[in-house]
Amino acid sequence: MKLFIKCFAFFVASIVFINVNVVAQIYTTTKVDAQVKELVSKMTLEEKIGQMTQVTIQAVSKVQGTKDQNHQLDLTKLEEAIKKYHVGSILNVYDVAHTAEYWHEVINKIQTIAVKETRLGIPVLYGIDAIHGVTYTKGSTLFPQSISMAATWNTEIAKQSGEITSLETKASGIAWNFYPVMDIGRQPLWSRLWETFGEDVYLASQMGSSYINGAQGDDLSAPDKLATCLKHYVGYSFPINGLDRTPAWISERMMREYFLPTFEAGILAGSPSVMVNSAEVDGIPGHANYHLLTEVLRNEMNFKGLVVSDWEDIKRLHTRDRVASTPKEAVRISVMAGVDMSMVPYDFSFYNYLLELVKEGTVPIWRIDEAVSRILAVKMQVGLFDNPYPNKELLKDFAKNEFTTINLNAARESIILTKNENNILPLSKTTKVLVTGPTANMLSVLNGGWTITWQGNEESLYPAEKNTVLEAIQNKVGPKNVNYVEGCSFDKDINTNKAVSEARNSDVVIICLGEAAYCETPGSIFDLNLNKAQLDLANKIMETGKPVILIMLEGRPRVITDITQKAKGILIGFLPGMEGGNAIADVLFGDVNPSGKLPVTYPKTPNGITLYDYKPIEKFDGNDYNPLWPFGYGLSFTTFEYSNLKISSQEITENEELTVKIDVKNTGKMAGKEVVQLYLTDMYGSVTRPNKQLKGFEKVLLNPGEVKTIEFKLNKQHLSFIGLENKRIVEPGDFVITIENHTANFGLK
After folding, report:
1. pLDDT digits over 409-446, tens only?
2. How far apart are CA 503 and CA 547, in angstroms?
3. Contact predicate 288/333, CB 8 Å
4. Which of 237, 411, 586, 664 pairs as cysteine with 576 (C-beta 3.0–4.6 A)?
5. What is the DSSP letter of 296?
6. Beta carbons of 53 and 80 less than 8 angstroms apart
7. C-alpha to C-alpha distance for 219 and 222, rounded to whole angstroms
8. Which of these, 151, 152, 238, lies nearest to 198 by C-alpha position?
9. What is the rounded distance in angstroms from the CA atom of residue 561 to the CA atom of residue 225?
């Protein structure tokens, strides 16, 4: 495998992603730009500002859809929004999934008014958070969440999920997806960690770019493709206190080294839109940050697409952040900072204020034309001007059986085996097991937030035909071999004593622990320790002396150190999606060999959150890197042996490429997949360099006794870093390559 080149401002992306981006740019330049220019010239100021306005479906609804009532559009409000205020975009849905057929009804009504009852017939761009499948369409294929996708370390799976989610979203009539999340998950307390592809820049860049490649292909206007949106630009994921929507303190160098490159990767992959983050960096709210939105995103990264606000965040420049003395001033600041479209979302205040600002001369017309041109370009690229209506033909491919198979494979590859004492796993299918714990018999804990509802915690709405962990185990070994006692809820004892009693009559106890489903601020916590009720359940069962298998279903790594020593086997599932129960059972009983690897460092203590790419001072003079399990860790039921690490030269120049080869052999008795990980250490630099950094990976399937040679290529981009002047540089010096337990040294002259 050729190593994908790490992206930043002057970086060159891998040929796969270059091709996607080049196609998109050529299309925009040769066709769309001219059409946009002509259309803008015909628009009134009011029509232009309307295009910059986005409201939620709630703002144009008569009856809100819930589990107890069907949604109903208010045609009077809808006509007012489109014909009077000229809104360019509508988003989301009120906390319940609809059928694809009902989505067609909704979208058809919206587009009919926009296309047939307005002067210029500009279609509406509908957006939705389909972050692990079509969240709000019943029966859709719901994949592992991003953190679990990252645990697969398989870019092809990420691409497939993009292809399927794109098709099913378009089959619902929706052309804009607020995904992928390109934030870097380097703060484990953060309640949105599970929406990220983990803590590493390179891994997240590859997984996110692969998703975009699948979702958009090389022609955004194709019937089964849609526009992606990079979230949440930028630094949102690193709040100093771990709480959602709270301040991050990130230096310019750190921002450029760790947080911007993933967005650059997404831009190079061709994503046409970016969503602004809801918090602040270094005292400047995201929606007021001219430096990041214009100087960096536009001028340095050369992003040509649409920048949309997050939920109500322009208003919050006044009401919360107090950088704007009035709501009107908040609109001026955000637009001049670089926001093109406002997710208002409930009213038309943004429209009214911006209209006043332009008429007063406070916001120049060129800025309006610029923003509108970007919005119209995206609409044209996704083919809305050619056909704004849902494509009924796509429904025949919605939720196909083969999609479920792909989803199951993704879930299987996401499961991480972190302990297997005396090879207790896989279990025999004749084993009598007790299943207990709060995550054993719930589908919501497999999926997390953005699943059917915003919080994803409405268990009654989940499809009955899908299997919880308990149900999947029962299907695997038969109900007679499985006993179930709930034991405890997430934070309270229910019948722990009964679980302990039943444990004594079992061969093995499977304890399913973790977190209830949550999303965004409702998921904020102050302590990474797992809740006491769950720890008590585990400890009391372990005191019986029966062998225990722990299964963790969680959106972030909750600290479980006290119980890991007594457990015989441990599976980290994170949020493996709708097929997660089946995948876990497959691993438990040996039908699947686990191949997942941690995309984050798993902490041993609540405050022990040093990450794998730590700086030298973080392991010096009493400081230490001592996680429960390190980034990239994961066991298999078979064994692998690495040998013959070779490099093409002991020294290269800045413009030369280094070839790295290593042999990997399956030395066990079972076929298995291994993630070959290449790390690079820059021994000395003008700025302190990390202990090591991931620079390449390849997932390879090996049969027993089989040997494969894995090849990587390194160039100056992999050796570069952000220097003293906050610019990416390459310095001569010594480097160390590490693959598993093998190292090789080379120099850059």
Report:
1. 999 999 999 999 999 999 999 999 999 999 999 999 99
2. 9
3. yes
4. 411
5. I
6. no
7. 6
8. 151
9. 44
At residue 70, does pLDDT exceed 90?
A: no
CA proximity to 186, closest of 575, 630, 609 = 609
Average of per-residue pLDDT across 351-357? 98
Q: How far apart are CA 679 and CA 693, in angstroms?
A: 5
pLDDT at 95: 77
| Residue given tokens 């939620």 in the structure block | 56
H-run or E-run covering 658: strand 658-666
Tens of pLDDT, residues 640-668: 999 999 999 999 999 999 999 999 999 99
The model's pTM: 0.95
Residues with catalytic annotation? Answer: 310
Residue 213 CB neighbours (<10 A): 22
The answer to whether the Cα torsion of 226, 227, 228, 232 is positive or negative is: negative
Taking the CB of residue 749, how many other CB atoms lie within 10 A of it?
9
| 8-state DSSP, 646 | E
Alpha-carbon distance of 519 to 522, in angstroms, equals: 6
Report CA-CA distances (Å) from 737 to 530, 662, 677, 745.
37, 11, 10, 6
Two structure tokens written together for 334: 């955000």
Structure tokens at 463: 């499809």
> 227 forms bridges with which residues in the sheet?
176
Q: Are the beta carbons of 571 and 550 closer than 8 angstroms?
A: yes
**Given pLDDT bands bounded at 50, 70 and 90, which one contains residue 68?**
confident
Which domains are seen in the chain, by residue range?
Answer: 15-277+379-397 (3.20.20.300), 415-619 (3.40.50.1700), 640-748 (2.60.40.10)
Task: Sheet containing 640-647: give its strands across.
Answer: 640-647, 658-666, 707-714
Q: Is the pLDDT of residue 19 over 80?
A: no
Structure tokens at 631: 């980034």
Q: Supply 535's token pair.
A: 């720890």
Burial code (b: 16+ CB inside 10 Å, e: under 16) for 16-38 equals bbeebbebbeebbeeebeeebee
Residue 422: per-residue pLDDT: 97
Which residues is 613 bridged to in the sheet?
Answer: none
In angstroms, rounded to a whole number, what is the distance separating the alpha carbons of residues 75 and 109? 8
Between β-strands 508-514 and 548-553, what pairing exists: parallel, antiparallel or unpaired? parallel
Pair 574, 554: CB distance under 8 Å: yes
Mean local confidence (pLDDT), 243-247: 97
d(CA 555, CA 533): 18
Q: Please tell me the distance from the alpha carbon of residue 638 to that of residue 703, in angstroms, as a whole number.
A: 10
CB proximity list for 501: less than 8 A, separation 6 or greater: none
What average pLDDT does the chain have? Answer: 95
Q: What are phi and psi of 641, to 5 degrees?
A: -125, 130
Contacts of 154 (CB under 8 A, 6+ apart): 410, 413, 699
The per-residue pLDDT for range 669-686, each reduced to its tens digit, is 999 999 999 999 999 999
Extract the tokens encoding 327.
């709501």
Decide: 524 and 239 in contact? Cβ < 8 Å. no
Q: Is the model's pLDDT at 7 over the cut of 50? A: no
Strands 61-63 and 721-722: unpaired
Q: How many helices (H) and strands (E) does the chain have?
A: 23, 29
Residue type, 641: E
438, two tokens: 């709060």
CA nearest 223: which of 177, 296, 264, 173? 173
Confidence of residue 29 (pLDDT cuts 50, 70, 90): low
